[in-house]
Amino acid sequence: MKVPVRWAWWEAVLWIALLASPLVFRERALLINEIAIVALFAVSLDLILGFTGIVSLGHAAFFGMGAYAAALFAKLVMPDPLVGLLVAIGVSTLLGAVCSMTIIRGSDLTRLMVTLGVGLILAELANKLDWLTGGADGLQGVIMGPLLGRFEFDLYGQTSALYSLLVLFLLFVLARHLVNSPFGATLKAIRDNRLRAMAIGIPVTQRIALVYTIAAGMAGAAGGLLAQTSGFASLDVFEFHRSADVMLVLVVGGTGWLYGGVAGALVFTLLQNFISSITPQYWTFWIGLFLVVLVQVGRERLLRPWTWWSVLRSGGSK
Question: What pTM, to 2 d.p., does this model score?
Answer without folding.
Answer: 0.87
